[in-house]
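Thread: D-xylitol-5-phosphate complex, take 2
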Amino acid sequence: MPAPVHSSLLAPSILAGQHIRLAESAAQVAAAGAPWLHLDIMDGHFVPNLTFGPQMVAELRREQPGLFFDVHLMLDNPQDFVEPFAKAGANLISFHLEPAIDHRALLARVRELGCQTGLVLNPGSPAELAEPFLAEIDLLLVMTVQPGFGGQSFRRDMLPKLVQLDTWRRQRELRFRLEVDGGVDAKTGPECRAAGADTFVAGTAFFKAPDRAAFVREAAAW
Ligand code: DX5
Ligand code: ZN
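Output below.
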C-alpha cells in the first residue's frame, strides 16, 4: 500500500453527547485529547432530524477555544447558514453535494469567510459527483450511513468509493482530507483507513468508549 497522504485523526461527534449538557460533552472530547470536534447541523428537511444552530456553536466555541470545529451542514439551504456558522467559530464548514445549489460559489464564500471547505457525499451519491471539485476543497466527507441519526450500522459498500477518491487524490497530487462519518469504530475505522480515509468521525464509539483518551490514541494509529 502506498504511504498515506495524511496521518489518522479522530473527530468525535457531539451528536452522541448529552444535549442538555453539550458543554460538558465538548469538554470530554478535549480532555480525551481529540484535536477535532465534529458538529452535526440538521434541518429536519434534508435529513429527518433536528439538532442545534449557530448560537450553540458560538457558545461551545467560547468554552473550547482550542478545538478544531468541523461543522457538517445537513441542510437544503447551506448558503443561508455558512456566514452564521463561520461567525460562530467554525474552522471547517462542509455541505452536501445533493442539494441543487451553486457549490463552487459556496466553496468560495466559505473560504472568503476564513474557513476551510468540505463537501459531503450521501451513501447513494457516486464519487463522480465530487470529482470536479477535488482541487478546490480541504476535505471530502463520505457518509457511511444515511445521515440523520447516530448509532447506525456502518455501510461497508462505501469502501470502494473511498478507494476511488483516494486514487484520484494521489493521481492529481491533491491534499484534501478524506473523512468518513457513520458507524465508525475500532473495527470499521481501520477498514476505512485501508481504503484511503484519514479523518474519522465517531459519535457512539467515542462516547461509549470505556477509556476515551485511549480510544483517541488508538484511532491515531489506524
Ligand atoms: C449522522 C451524523 C454523524 C453521527 C455519527 O447523520 O452525520 O456525524 O454523529 O454517529 P455514529 O458515530 O454514532 O454513527
Ligand atoms: Zn456528521
